[in-house]
Design goal:
With about 80 residues, this protein is α+β, with helices and mostly antiparallel strands. Helices cover about 35% and strands about 30% of the residues. The chain has helices spanning about 50-65, 65-80; strands at about 10-15, 25-30, 35-40, 40-50.
Length: about 80
């Protein structure tokens, strides 16, 4: 599970190698909560435990680091 580095906050933001056949997306985990977001466009796929306020915060964080996240996705999934 490659973690996306240099993103501040309490979240573990990562993607799963076997998910490379899917559209670009990230998984976000904190404690026992987990969510999945598509990256193009940024959209919530599923949520297990985060409240709406925190989901908005996560979506904003993904938006702020969108270019870096997509570069990391493409490097891992298309150059590996």
């Amino acid at each position: 599970m490659p973690r996306i580095k240099d993103i501040p906050g309490p979240y573990h933001i990562f993607f799963v190698s076997f998910d490379c056949a899917e559209p670009a997306h990230v998984h976000v985990v904190r404690e026992r909560m987990e969510a999945k977001f598509w990256l193009e466009p940024i959209a919530l796929v599923h949520n297990y435990g985060f409240n709406r306020r925190e989901l908005n915060k996560i979506e904003q964080l993904i938006g702020e680091h969108h270019e870096h996240i997509l570069e990391t996705w493409h490097e891992h999934c298309h150059e590996g």
